Amino acid sequence: MIKANNNEVVLGDEDLIVSKTDLKGRITYINRTFMSISGFPEKALIGHQHNVIRHPDMPRGVFHKMWQELKSEQEFFGYVKNLCADGSYYWVFANVTPDFDQQGTLRGYYSVRRKPNPSAVSLIKDLYQKMRSEENSGDRKTAPLRSWAIIDEYLKQHNVSYNRFMIESDDTKEAC
Predict the structure, then answer these.
(1) Contact between residue 4 and residue 83 where contact means Cβ atoms under 8 Å apart
(2) CA atoms within 13 A on the CB side of 41
(3) Domains (ranges, CATH) in the chain?
């Protein structure tokens, strides 16, 4: 198990991290940028669950929402804090989409991640910290739903949908 540390790796403006997974979330493809930024060699990732790079600061509720959207054949946008092989971390703005073959059969998922808007990350960090706190209290089984309720409440207060909030937060200099 990798021990997380406080060293941040910052993506460049042109960096695009690309990966593909099968239906169970096992990695089937990664690009060189993924390997370079994460510090993992290809053999350490291919065939493994994508959550091998999940940073412990990431709330389970975010991934619950992601899988909910993907299983509905919808795309997912979100901010994700990932773990590097040496314990460092990096933030990304992720777009995960279902990957269909020519017959329309779902065969896996395709993800492109890029440098996030720093002001949006500041806002998201606060929300994620509240979500993790909620997940660490009470029943573990219901933790993802309880933590996601924190995002839902924020969205209601700001009268915005989740996808709109994610996209507009990343497109503007100042988050909502």
Answers:
(1) yes
(2) 2
(3) 16-171 (3.30.450.20)
To the nearest whole number, what is the mean pLDDT of the chain? 94
Average pLDDT over residues 100-128: 95
Tokens read off for 174: 């100042």
pTM confidence score: 0.92
Residue with tokens 């020519």: 102
CA distance 90 to 120: 14
Four-residue CA torsion sign, 110, 102, 75, 51: negative
What span, in angstroms and rounded, lies between the C-alpha atoms of 102 and 128? 38
CA distance to 81, 105, 162, per residue, from 26 (Å):
19, 18, 26
Residues whose CB falls within 8 Å of the CB of residue 31, separated by 6 or more in sequence, listed in order: 16, 17, 18, 19
DSSP-assigned letter for residue 120: H
Residue 172, pLDDT above cutoff 70: no
7-11 long-range contacts, Cβ below 8 Å, gap at least 24?
7/86, 7/87, 7/88, 7/89, 8/88, 8/89, 8/90, 8/91, 9/37, 9/84, 9/88, 9/89, 9/90, 10/90, 10/115, 11/37, 11/90, 11/91, 11/92, 11/114, 11/115
Cα distance between residue 29 and residue 103, in whole Å: 21
